[in-house]
User: Which sequence fits this backbone?
């Protein structure tokens, strides 16, 4: 946990941004795997962590803005829990650790909410993403689960997004710790990237590193020779010489701040000429984003600059044709890049995504696109110092998408389908790093950077393979 003052200041800042009412911040409960006492590893809700700090299950935070009071609710454990799991602090002790003197059990919480409703106080809650929270909100507020996301407090969502978007120095240090673990994960994957090793083995090894040095992986690792599949799960397939291994993986620290990196490694240690041609374009796009990212610039514009550079480079290889700017406006590049350049990152690897991407990645200045590809850009907002965003361009050859566009004649004036057909066995390439927006520009987070330039990757593999 951070200091008591950190959480006190965060709650105070939230109260200053809210007009009034009661704010509910629901902590998570245990999630059973196949029985009540065999649970998935516990992960606390990120907004609860941000304002109340504690990682124990069954806790609820309440902020009464009208009366300037803060509460922590939860049931203290009994002797049976102590026998099996050991002693933990009481709810009162946990409250004091984060600057809260008013605590109680869940029955007290229910009484407080009932009294607040009877008094006509507005009850602000966040969009629930867990069924147990949906049931609780239905019991407390009488709102059906199907209506809860639409009735969640937009005022509260916007206030939290405003606070969590800009990372403090102590938060940046935590993300740097996550990047350090990510460095160990990805360099291990690169060392293991050789014919005969399975995708699943590499995934298991890097997951073990995440747990050994932090809390967990920040999302299920993508480790696959089928880089054209955006979220390809690792299989038991053996790595094949001459192919590429795409590894998209990150770590989450004990304090639950995340990293997210992607590297695409040649399985025999050397990129082929054709692989180098495509890889170098992605490499240039990655570096262009770093150069373009700075305060006041829309991330949407950085994305489009990257798409334009990619289009011109693919034209040089004969894969695309026509006017490059018209091609980008038409969305022809999305055949090769069907996702966005990056997303916000922090406590969640897709930071605050549970609150609604339309509030996190967009605002009143800029709204999401509905064009294929660009519609998947999770972040388009004007950059500010303290933002952390991922920089993850890629080029993918997706056979089913190529066949569909060719059949329908989609963007045929900008695409050389006869040439593209020859790449249907290529796979995909992505390079990803985490950027901190500074006062003057952007810097890549992490003290040690995972190799990604072609010569650096090949040299690293030659010197470090197991």
Assistant:
């Amino acid at each position: 946990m951070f200091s008591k003052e950190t959480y006190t200041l965060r709650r105070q800042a939230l109260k200053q941004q809210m007009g009034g009412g009661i704010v509910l911040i629901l902590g998570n409960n245990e999630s059973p795997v196949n029985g009540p006492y065999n649970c998935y590893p516990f992960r606390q809700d990120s907004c609860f962590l941000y304002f109340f700090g504690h990682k124990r299950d069954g806790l609820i935070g309440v902020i009464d803005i009208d009366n300037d009071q803060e509460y922590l609710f939860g049931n203290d454990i009994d002797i049976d829990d102590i026998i099996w799991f050991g002693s933990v602090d009481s709810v009162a002790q946990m409250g004091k650790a984060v600057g809260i003197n008013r605590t109680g059990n869940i029955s007290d919480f229910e009484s407080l909410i009932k009294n607040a409703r009877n008094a006509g106080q507005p009850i602000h809650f966040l969009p629930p993403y867990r069924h147990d929270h949906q049931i609780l909100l239905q019991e407390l507020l009488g709102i059906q689960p199907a209506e809860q996301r639409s009735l969640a407090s937009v005022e509260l969502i916007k206030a939290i997004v405003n606070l969590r978007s800009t990372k403090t120095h102590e938060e940046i240090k935590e993300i740097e710790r996550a990047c350090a673990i990510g460095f160990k994960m990805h360099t291990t994957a690169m060392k293991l990237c050789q014919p005969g090793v399975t995708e699943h083995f590499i995934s298991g090894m890097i997951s073990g590193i995440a747990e050994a040095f932090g809390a967990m992986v920040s999302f299920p690792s993508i480790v696959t020779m089928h880089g054209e599949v955006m979220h390809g799960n690792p299989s038991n397939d053996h790595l094949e010489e001459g192919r590429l291994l795409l590894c998209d993986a990150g770590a989450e620290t004990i304090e639950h701040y995340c990293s997210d990196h992607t590297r695409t490694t040649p399985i025999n240690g050397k990129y082929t000429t054709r692989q180098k041609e495509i890889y170098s374009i992605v490499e240039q796009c990655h570096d262009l984003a770093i150069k373009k990212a700075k305060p006041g610039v829309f991330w949407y514009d950085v994305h489009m600059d990257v798409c334009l550079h990619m289009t011109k480079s693919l034209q040089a290889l004969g894969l695309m044709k026509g006017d490059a700017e018209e091609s980008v406006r038409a969305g022809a590049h999305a055949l090769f890049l069907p996702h966005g350049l990056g997303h916000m990152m922090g406590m969640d690897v897709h930071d605050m995504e549970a609150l609604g991407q339309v509030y996190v990645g967009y605002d009143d200045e800029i709204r999401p696109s509905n064009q294929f590809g660009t519609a998947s850009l999770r972040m388009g907002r004007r950059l500010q110092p303290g933002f952390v965003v991922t920089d993850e361009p890629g080029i993918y050859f997706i056979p089913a998408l190529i066949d569909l566009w060719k059949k329908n004649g989609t963007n045929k004036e900008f695409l050389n389908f006869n040439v593209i057909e020859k790449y249907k066995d290529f796979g995909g390439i992505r390079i990803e790093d985490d950027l901190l927006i500074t006062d003057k520009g952007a810097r890549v987070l992490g003290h040690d950077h995972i190799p990604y330039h072609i010569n650096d990757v090949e040299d690293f593999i030659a010197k470090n393979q197991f």
